[in-house]
């Protein structure tokens, strides 16, 4: 297919590139050619550009890389607002019986709701860790991937799995878990059907057994071998709570990080969600192996899990991105609010006011996330040759106009309006509304499916 040389020119905006030097322009321009950033810099765009199909006067705006979400559970969109005063284990026990009743129409509606909320708030690369596959409920992975494709968002499906049910000492109901062989076979089939290894891929797949307390050691070990044989990334939950640490010591005679290392689950192709309860040697192991972390501050607070040691991880060189987490533990479902919450929550920790600053928070939500997903060579910063995944945030309204520094305004101010969001060079949001989907129809369908799930769960 011939290269697309049609150009979009964006001018008169502040630009935070989040490149290696944190280059910023108080008033600059971007030139998009096809699905790539062709050039950017200070002042107006060069004269004489050919095939310019659109010019955007972005006066009063800040341009940043699109936000990258590194951890989510889309299906939870239809179980928001439940078990609101529980810690993680009690919350799981309360909700697993309901989650075990999901089916394909529910999952499709929930995925559309989750994606819509993120996309209209500046997310251009999303991921979903889906690990609940009740028997005979349809093509859940296909439904999720289809929803992302229709929304126009770059997407990684972390194909999850659980094989440790209640009878084996796990938390999920036995009818909601897979056998070891079924989980591995279905995961491999999902990778072969849907994973695109190309540099501008819109859909990728990772191998993602759920957590130490819902999967067997064999599933972890064989899952890692499968991922490396297929050349895809690995994802799971790690060190989320003190209860998990106690569980690992009781069952395996070691802490979560040592257990993960013993099963092949540390490395540059691995990222883990939460990592709240990490000691110095755990952080050193992640740094030594290049293992990434998805930091989910709102969910960690909602479930009283604790404060992850993000400043220490960054100082050690651990790759860290941000995650919404499932919306049954972060009802807002938005990533741009996590920029603010990451900064605020971490300042409650040991480093206090020196924990994170606004630019570090923006880096976590953009380049850091791209690095964690293995896509930092293609997205996560605004640089010539990178994919045209970017957001124009409006900064001249009541909410932000009196804050001189636009990055500070974006991170510490109210959630900024998204005037335009581009993914792969295609605009998917305009003036805070999706161009690729009907938000009102999505709202109705998610409400309908949430009510249907509640009725089924109540019948037991």
From TrEMBL:
CDD domains for this protein: ATZ_TRZ_like (cd01298)
Enzyme class: hydrolase
Entry's EC annotation: 3.5.4.32
Keywords per UniProt: Hydrolase
Keyword Transmembrane: no
Keyword Heme: no
Domain Amidohydrolase-related: 63-397
InterPro entries (UniProt xref): Amidohydro-rel, Metal-dep_hydrolase_composite, Metal_Hydrolase, MTA/SAH_deaminase
Residues in the signal sequence: none
Superkingdom, natural source: Bacteria
GO molecular function: 8-oxoguanine deaminase activity
Entry protein name: 8-oxoguanine deaminase
Lineage of producing organism: Bacteria, Bacillati, Actinomycetota, Actinomycetes, Kitasatosporales
């Amino acid at each position: 297919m011939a290269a697309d040389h049609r150009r979009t020119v964006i001018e008169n905006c502040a630009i935070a590139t989040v490149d290696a030097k944190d280059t910023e322009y108080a008033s600059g321009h971007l030139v998009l050619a096809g699905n790539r950033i062709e050039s950017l810099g200070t002042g107006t765009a060069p004269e004489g550009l050919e095939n310019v199909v659109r010019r955007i006067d972005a006066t009063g705006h800040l341009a940043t890389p699109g936000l990258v979400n590194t951890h989510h559970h889309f299906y939870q969109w239809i179980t928001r607002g439940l078990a609101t005063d529980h810690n993680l284990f009690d919350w799981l026990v309360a909700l697993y019986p309901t989650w075990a009743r999901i089916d394909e129409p529910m999952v499709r509606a929930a995925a559309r709701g989750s994606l819509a909320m993120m996309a209209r708030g500046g997310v251009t690369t999303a991921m979903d860790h889906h690990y609940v596959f009740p028997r005979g409920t349809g093509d859940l992975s296909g439904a999720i991937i289809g929803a992302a494709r229709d929304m126009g968002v770059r997407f990684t499906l972390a194909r999850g799995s659980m094989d440790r049910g209640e009878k084996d000492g796990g938390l999920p109901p036995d009818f909601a878990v897979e056998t070891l062989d079924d989980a591995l076979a279905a995961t491999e089939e999902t990778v072969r059907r849907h994973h695109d290894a190309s540099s501008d891929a819109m859909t990728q797949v990772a191998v993602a057994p759920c957590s130490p307390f819902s999967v067997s050691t064999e599933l972890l070990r064989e899952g890692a071998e499968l991922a490396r044989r297929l050349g895809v990334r690995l994802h799971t939950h790690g060190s989320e709570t003190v209860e998990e640490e106690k569980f690992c010591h009781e069952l395996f005679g070691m802490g979560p990080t040592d257990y993960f290392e013993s099963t092949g689950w540390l490395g540059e192709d691995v990222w883990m969600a939460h990592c709240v309860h990490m000691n110095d040697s755990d952080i050193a192991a992640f740094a030594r192996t290049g293992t990434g972390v998805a930091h989910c501050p709102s969910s960690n607070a909602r479930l009283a899990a604790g404060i992850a040691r993000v400043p220490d991880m960054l100082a050690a060189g651990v790759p860290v991105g941000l995650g919404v987490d499932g919306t049954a533990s972060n009802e807002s479902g938005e990533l741009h609010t996590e920029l603010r919450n990451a900064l605020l929550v971490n300042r409650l920790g040991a480093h206090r006011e020196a924990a994170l600053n606004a630019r570090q928070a923006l880096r976590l939500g953009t380049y850091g996330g791209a690095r964690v997903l293995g896509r930092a060579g293609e997205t996560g910063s605004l640089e010539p040759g990178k994919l045209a995944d970017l957001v124009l945030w409006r900064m001249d309204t009541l909410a932000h106009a009196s804050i001189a520094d636009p990055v500070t305004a974006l991170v510490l101010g109210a959630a900024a309006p998204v005037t335009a969001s581009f993914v792969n060079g295609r605009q998917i949001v305009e003036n805070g509304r999706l161009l690729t989907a009907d938000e009102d129809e999505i709202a109705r369908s998610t409400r309908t499916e949430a009510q249907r799930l509640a009725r089924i769960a109540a019948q037991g």
